[in-house]
Specification:
The protein is of the alpha/beta class. The chain has 2 domains: 6-217, Spore Coat Polysaccharide Biosynthesis Protein SpsA, Chain A (Alpha-Beta Complex), CATH 3.90.550; 234-393, 60s Ribosomal Protein L30, Chain: A (2-Layer Sandwich). 29% of the residues lie in helices and 26% in strands. The chain has helices spanning 38-47, 64-69, 87-98, 118-127, 173-183, 193-199, 219-230, 275-287, 293-296, 310-322, 345-356, 374-377, and strands spanning 6-12, 32-33, 36-37, 54-59, 81-82, 105-110, 133-139, 145-146, 155-156, 163-165, 169-172, 204-208, 235-250, 253-256, 259-262, 265-267, 326-335, 363-368, 381-393. Strands 1, 4, 5, 6, 7, 10, 11 and 12 form an 8-stranded mixed sheet that branches. A 5-stranded mixed sheet has the order 16-13-19-17-18. Strand 17 (326-335), helix 11 and strand 18 form a beta-alpha-beta unit. Helix 10 (310-322) crosses helix 11. It comes from Devosia epidermidihirudinis.
Length: 396
């Protein structure tokens, strides 16, 4: 029985502008990760698979010299073809170029996914023995909200039915070629090739994706790519601490951990006086050497009067992300005689997690009293202490 021929289309026709940073003008597929261009890594991943018969790269019309400069050479590597204005039209250009060769199967791969494994390629190909199409996908672990206007939540999706698609997406060549030709005649842009296959009535299966099979889209993804290559050797862990205290004044509500808690007093301060989030923000800022809240949000600036302290916390989290880092864990201790904290801890964890984009399992919130000693014992105010553990790229 003749072994099936498998062609690969590597889609590299985009300008790659979203991944640019600090004046970087090189398209992301030609930028280097650990000395090797992203596109070259992607092509090499398929050359490493003995199942692959041919590889065709679809490039932008302006990138001919960049592609040639990669110096790629292999008997299975076909001359590149020029793509279109959209990903969909670029894939169709690749399919048309392969048509005279009549491959049995075709794998369609984003150039910006340089870490596809030989095992994942094999898993996708295996499904094509039974189905018309296949793609790797990962279960969605975050809670997903649907909104009609980007502001109000309309509904919460059942994440047990949601999966994040990856590439390579594999198909029987004649079927996906026909589906793409039909799709090119309708006034609609499809998000990926599997959607076109679904629209055309083809049966598409899924295999378990790979969390390292990332798509490089934003500048911080290059940091993650380096980490995949080198492991954690390029990262270092830093720890910051925060401390804050606010006195009570007449009122009926306190804000703690981003949660509104009815009480016989309120806290005195320039913003909403959320002593827990202030300490936590200072801990994160301290871990990355960025001073304290007062540096970024001076109390002399009236725009912050009465402001929600989640604004300060979100800013600190963004500074970590901009450095290519991540928050490992947060620990907050609130010291007060009242209000009672324990029943509000899950809500506080939820607010902090949503503000920083991390899991609630990375957030610890504890409460204690001062055993009726000192100003806390006299119910004159609240103290909060916090620590933050943050991973950031190593700076030698």
């Amino acid at each position: 029985m003749r072994e099936k021929s498998i062609a690969v289309i590597v889609v590299a026709a985009g300008r790659g502008e979203r991944a640019s940073a600090n004046g970087e003008s090189e398209p992301k597929q030609y930028r280097r990760v650990d000395g090797v261009a992203v596109l070259e890594r992607t092509i090499d991943a398929f050359l490493a698979s003995p199942q692959v018969s041919q590889i065709l790269t679809v490039i932008h019309a302006d990138h001919g010299e960049r592609y040639a400069a990669l110096g790629l050479s292999d008997d299975r590597l076909l001359p590149p073809v020029i793509g279109g204005e959209s990903r969909q039209s670029s894939v169709l250009a690749g399919l048309k170029a392969l048509a005279p060769m009549r491959p049995d199967l075709v794998l369609i791969q984003d150039a910006a996914r340089p870490f596809v494994s030989t095992a994942l390629i094999g898993d996708v190909v295996a499904v094509l023995a039974q189905l018309d199409g296949a793609l790797p996908a990962l279960p969605v672990t975050d809670t997903v909200k649907r909104s009609l206007d980007g502001q109000l939540v309309a509904t919460t999706e059942d994440r047990n039915q949601l999966f994040a698609a990856q590439t390579p997406q594999g198909f029987r060549f004649s079927q996906i070629f026909s589906a793409h030709m039909r799709a090119s005649t309708v006034r609609r842009q499809f998000t990926d090739d599997a959607e076109i296959a679904e629209w055309a009535g083809l049966r598409v299966g899924m295999v378990m994706g790979d969390r390292n099979n990332i798509k490089i889209t934003h500048p911080e993804d290059f940091v993650r790519a380096e980490r995949i290559i080198h492991g954690d050797s390029l990262m270092e862990t830093r720890v910051g601490t925060g401390f804050d205290v606010h006195s009570f004044e007449p009122g009926d509500v306190v804000w703690l951990g981003g949660v509104r808690i009815p009480y016989k007093f309120k806290l005195n301060g320039h913003s909403d006086s959320d002593v827990a989030l202030h300490a936590l923000t200072d801990a994160i800022l301290g871990a990355i050497g960025e001073g304290d809240i007062g540096v970024h949000f001076p109390p002399s600036d009236m725009q912050w009067k009465g402001a929600a302290s989640t604004i300060f916390l979100e800013h600190a989290g963004k500074l970590v992300t901009e450095r290519g880092g991540r928050i490992v864990n947060l620990d907050v201790t609130i010291v007060c005689e009242g209000p009672r904290i324990a029943e509000h801890v899950p809500a506080m964890q939820g607010v902090i997690a949503a503000t920083l984009g991390i899991a609630t399992s990375r957030i610890a919130i504890k409460a204690t009293t001062s055993e009726r000693l000192g100003f806390i014992g006299r119910e004159e105010g609240i103290v909060a202490m916090a620590s933050a553990s943050v991973e950031v790229p190593r700076v030698d």
